[in-house]
Design a protein that fits this description.
By secondary structure, the chain is of the alpha+beta class. The chain contains 27 helices and 26 strands.
């Protein structure tokens, strides 16, 4: 038979087959097919297909549509029946139900906490309405040590961009938030503030409750304050027109409240209480307004359809035109990515907090898998208790689909119940979680959370319920009615494999906890090259700037104070400069130096060791033009016999009077970088004092009294240098604490599953235990037999987990320039810990089973 070249539309045919009454379908399809081929011959193929669809539409009428099957089957009654059986099974097997409920609810609690944390992280800075087109200009600085990435750019760049780059829809310059002193009358207080240009609110979506942001920021004497700051200062938010005095580094500016800011959203990575004019900052405060001074931050919104790279190239060309020969390049980075992707290596984005998002997401997945494995193992292991029910239902004609429906009903109901328990636990422990994570998370029933919870129930229901439903519904009715359950090797091995996977994940988490803890201890105990213990510091401000020398002299005489000095030293970095020339420097020898202003006695008080020369001292008059470098700086410059050699600083010639031993001013994430000390007491921002151990509180009270006598009205806010050091690792410390909790939850869930599984295995072998005891087996021998399988599974999990955990630990430690060495005991400890936990979990049951009276085991034989 010759094959027809064209066929009716398949989709239309399938539609009719599904919806037409069975007594009409065959005749109608035949008629339509005959008419289709006739139309093809007489007219065209597309006319035939169009007419076919038209005829199909005509048949979609009530008289021709088949009746719904819902009328012939009572799905509601079936669901109620399954629900009744579910409750009965839960009552009958209480231990299995409680173990599953505890495991799933604990796992879901952990997942919900991580979901709230991750959602908060990934939503940070995403509230800006123009976020898809919002970029910040960043700068890459290439020198002899590589490429370093800064968020600072020349402030002069703002006007150039506004004048020459039309693709920039709106552009603003601003500073990072900083703590300043404000005063109203004789009352002084601290608040975080920043400076910003007049287009700030065109770029960012911070909300103004009152006032006009553009005009307020154009005025050098204007200030915008938040609602909470207005309430704190004036006891009311009706503050427009009121005056405040701003103080910083000897400067004082009377400003007038020109607007009220809505409080900064919690999803913002930058928190501030007020904004002042960039014009005042740039024109009156910045003393070195040059193209090689990177004192500003600039963000811009690109016009729709604009290519990011093209605009970045134009901005970079502006800088290169102004700074010929400088090895600096500018690029654009998405503003809403800067919180999660803040780390750069050699000018390339290399991670940041996104790594912790990935880490905790993986932990959530691990915990969820462990909880699901518990459910699968216990459900399949307990199948023998339901043999008669399955056999009777199958013999009465129950289909596999109906049985699967019953078991899925059980799974989803248990998971739904576990989710309700999990939400209750999250609500109960959320304040403690916020305290640990330093967040302000809330459990509110928004659409996103509800969708996530429903999705989680469905996912876990399918993940945990599929295998038991398929397994139980697939049992053969003849065998189950005889009370025999076939023991296929694959089923036994699959159960063992799931236990191995479960403990592998637990061991990986144990290794992670051990490594993170050891690294944090290493960070705390590391010799940084200076003594940070018992050093307090506080800001030089107000009258304190003029009479700080007299204050320091009196401070040294206080009981409990062993040393004091003015200093610009800051952990985490200070001012950086490339404006240094030295003998033999070539154009390729560009270096960035950390620059710290100090007074007499600062280096000695910090306990920094001199390698050559001497520290700044009043004994040497030439010290006012002297400079002290660290070892890394001398090595990078390639200077031999550095003492008394002259270098050219951007402020003038300086003579090298000393070299200090390398020390870590930055966190241990970075290696030691070139650094220099300058004797500039007038430019220092802090007073530092070292206290005697044992009576610090009383000593600080004495310092406060002295401070208030020298600087009345200003707040005395002492800070500890060692606490600042710990703050450099705040993120890692929080991760360490949270990882301990999550690892503990994972191990707890694993133990619950192992407990339930061992209970079942012991119950199944109770007669074997009785016979062995009659034949003379000891309690120890019986315990060995019962725990041997579990021991092998945990050992197998250890073998699998250790290489994986080693790779993950190495990857995490790469974030630190100085870290612990991974040794064999980190991994052996994790394996032994898992083995010990497994033994303790099954040990009690096996001991009780081994001591049972054989007569009780065999009395039914």
């Amino acid at each position: 038979m010759k094959k027809r070249p064209h066929i009716p539309p398949p989709l239309a045919e399938r539609l009719l087959q599904r919806v037409l009454r069975s007594d009409l379908a065959e005749e109608v399809l035949g008629d339509l097919e005959e008419k289709f081929y006739a139309t093809v011959e007489q007219k065209s193929v597309w006319r035939a297909k169009l007419n076919y669809w038209y005829q199909v539409a005509n048949y979609l009428r009530p008289f021709a549509i088949r009746k719904s099957r819902l009328k012939n089957s009572n799905y509601t009654a079936m669901f109620q029946h399954n629900l009744t059986l579910t409750f009965r099974n839960f009552q009958k097997h209480k231990s299995q139900f409680l173990i599953n409920l505890a495991g799933l609810s604990t796992g879901l609690t952990c997942v919900l906490f991580i979901y709230l944390w991750v959602t908060d992280e990934v939503s940070t800075d995403h509230f800006h309405k123009k976020g898809d087109r919002l970029y910040q200009i960043m700068s890459n600085h290439t020198d002899a040590s590589g490429v370093s990435t800064w968020k600072g750019v020349p402030g002069l760049l703002l006007e150039e961009i506004q004048a020459t780059i039309p693709e920039a829809e709106s552009t603003t310059a601003f500073t990072d938030p900083h703590e300043y002193t404000l005063s109203v009358g004789d009352v002084y207080f601290k608040a975080n503030g920043r400076f910003a240009s007049q287009d700030f609110f065109d770029v960012f979506s911070y909300q103004l409750a009152e006032g006009n942001g553009k005009t307020a920021l154009a005025d050098k004497s204007g200030i915008l304050i938040s609602r909470s700051l207005a309430q704190r200062v004036f006891k009311t938010t009706d503050a427009i027109g009121r005056q405040i005095v701003w103080h910083s580094w000897g400067n004082a500016k009377t400003v007038q409240v020109a607007g009220i800011l809505e409080d900064i959203p919690s999803s913002s990575s930058e928190k501030f209480d007020f904004i002042m004019s960039w014009n005042y900052f740039h024109d009156d405060l910045v003393s070195y307004k040059q193209w090689n001074n990177y004192y500003g931050r600039i963000a811009l919104v690109l016009a729709s359809g604009t290519e990011q790279d093209e605009v970045a190239a134009k901005i970079d060309a502006i800088l290169k035109e102004k700074l010929e020969g400088d090895r600096v390049s500018l690029f654009l980075a998405k503003y809403d990515d800067k919180y999660l992707y803040s780390e750069y290596e050699n000018g390339v984005q290399a991670g940041g907090r996104i790594e912790y998002v990935h880490l905790f997401s993986m932990v959530a997945l691990f915990v969820l898998l462990i909880a699901c494995i518990n459910f699968i193992n216990l459900s399949t292991a307990k199948a023998s208790h339901r043999l008669k029910e399955i056999g009777v239902k199958k013999s009465l004609g129950a289909s596999r689909q109906s049985l699967m429906g019953q078991y899925f009903t059980e799974s989803f109901f248990l998971i739904f119940l576990s989710m309700m328990v999990a939400f209750s636990l999250v609500w109960l422990f959320l304040p403690q979680f916020n305290s640990i994570s330093q967040k302000d998370l809330m459990l509110k029933p928004d659409g996103q959370l509800i969708v996530a919870a429903i999705g989680l129930v469905v996912m876990v229901g399918l993940l945990a319920g599929s295998y038991p439903a398929l397994y139980l519904s697939g049992l053969k009715s003849v065998e189950v009615l005889k009370g025999k359950l076939s023991r296929k090797a694959g089923e036994v091995w699959s159960r063992k494999a799931l236990v191995v996977v479960q403990f592998s994940l637990s061991i990986i988490l144990i290794v992670a906890v051990v490594v993170v803890y050891q690294q944090m201890e290493f960070v705390k105990d590391k010799n940084l090259g200076f003594n940070r213990e018992n050093i307090i510091y506080f800001e030089r401000e107000g009258k304190f700037i003029e009479n700080s020398e007299a204050f320091v002299n009196e401070l040294k005489t206080l009981p409990g104070v062993t040393g004091a000095a003015v200093s610009g030293f800051m952990l985490g970095g200070a001012n950086s400069t490339g404006g240094v020339d030295w003998p033999g420097k070539t154009p390729e020898d560009q270096l960035q130096f950390w620059e710290t202003n100090v007074g007499f006695g600062t280096i000695e008080m910090l306990g920094i060791e001199m390698v050559e020369g001497h520290a700044f001292s009043e004994k040497f008059g030439a010290d006012s033009t002297g400079v002290i470098f660290n070892e890394t700086a001398i090595a990078a410059m390639g200077i031999e016999n550095p003492i008394s050699q002259t270098i050219t600083h951007y402020t003038g010639d300086k003579k090298i009077i000393g070299v200090v031993k390398d020390f870590n001013m930055l966190s241990l994430h970075k290696t030691v970088e070139p650094m220099m000390f300058l004797l500039e007491p007038a430019k220092t921002h802090f007073v530092m004092a070292r206290l005697k151990s044992g009576n610090e509180a009383e000593t600080i009270k004495g310092i406060q009294t002295l401070y208030e006598s020298f600087n009345p009205g200003y707040q005395f806010i002492p800070l500890f240098l060692d606490q600042d050091y710990q703050a450099l690792y705040a993120s890692e410390e929080r991760v360490a604490i949270l990882s301990r909790y999550f690892a503990g939850i994972a191990i707890l869930i694993s133990c619950l599953g192992l407990f339930g599984l061992s209970s079942f295995m012991t119950e199944k072998r109770i007669k074997e235990i009785g016979i062995r005891k009659v034949l003379g087996s000891s309690v120890i021998r019986v315990m060995y037999l019962l725990t041997a399988d579990f021991t092998k599974m945990v050992l197998a999990a250890t073998v699998i987990a250790l290489p994986v955990s080693y790779i993950m630990a190495r990857k995490w430690l790469e974030n630190f320039a100085y870290g612990i060495d991974l040794t064999w005991w980190h991994f052996v400890f994790a394996g032994l810990a898992a083995l010990l936990v497994a033994w303790l979990t099954v040990g009690l049951q096996t001991f009780r089973a081994a001591r049972i009276n054989p007569a009780k085991c065999l009395r039914s034989e």
